[in-house]
Amino acid sequence: MQDQHTRLNASVECIRKFHHGTPVAGIVLGSGLASLADCLDEAIVIDGCDIRHYPQTTAPGHRGRLLFGKLSGLPVCLIDGRLHRYEGHDFETIVYPVRLMIALGIRLLVVSNAAGAVNRNYRSGDVVVLDDHINLMWGSPLRGANDDRMGPRFPDMSRPYDAELADRAMVASREEGLRVHRGVYLALSGPTYETPAEYRMVRKLGADVVGMSTIPEVIAARHSRIRVLGMSVVSNVAADEDDLAGTSGDDVIATVSRVAPAVGRVVAAVLAGRVPETLPGSTSSFLDGFADILCFAQNDRTVFRS
Ligand code: HPA
Fold this sequence. Notes:
Layout: H1 4-18, E1 25-28, E2 41-47, E3 65-71, E4 74-80, H2 91-94, H3 96-104, E5 108-117, E6 127-135, H4 163-175, E7 180-187, H5 196-204, E8 209-211, H6 215-223, E9 227-237, H7 249-272, H8 291-299
Parallel strand pairs: 1-4, 1-5, 5-9, 6-7, 7-8
Antiparallel strand pairs: 2-3, 3-4, 5-8, 6-9
Helix pairs in contact: 1-3, 4-7
């Protein structure tokens, strides 16, 4: 099989037949969050089957398509059809859509997911802006030979989630009237939801929410030095392991769908930089930092700088 770099270049060429723009931000939609796509202006939809080498998803509530459009006036690319470990995909395949968006020029990634809460202060429908994560999926998309064009052999993970974007998301979520927290996400491979002892373990390990996704994509993005905003929507709460209410995929999608429109507006507000212009540590307007990148991406159609 061709290496991933070559396959990504072929995928980029296919996308260029439909769309020429350079997205600045990439967004990965979590379960129940597909309606975020409705926030896009001037949307163009590309089916994954029309893109060479693009992997197909089988997960309920995930459709296997890419959307291009504008959010708050910014060109964005949206993945509707995340790939999961429990579908049988290897980690390199799971991060293919994210690496494709990086190849297309994104400098910022927003990852969203539905998650179960083990923090007893959380309720269904709350938003958790991620501060950190714990990878218990027993694998990494960076395993194997490193492609130095994508990033270093040993990437730093001291700041997996971007503090400025997280601050913006907190403010925007409150403005939307959402209950919002900062928290730690832990990923297991699934597809089973956790047993009582597993939920207890997740809490003891220091996580606030648990899910089956997101971490591989964040690792791939940080490998290529992309800024990441991570947001979980709490679909169920494991407050008392001795009396779990039980959950199902349908419950998860139904609960998360209710807050999805508000979460879409939060993402739009973060990208617009409508929330405080004077965040601690922020020096310039959010968009200024993108000028050189847009220039680079428009002038260079190869996937990663060699
Ligand atoms: N566990 C794992 N993944 C999930 C959960 C959960 O409780 N809820 C939604 N996704």
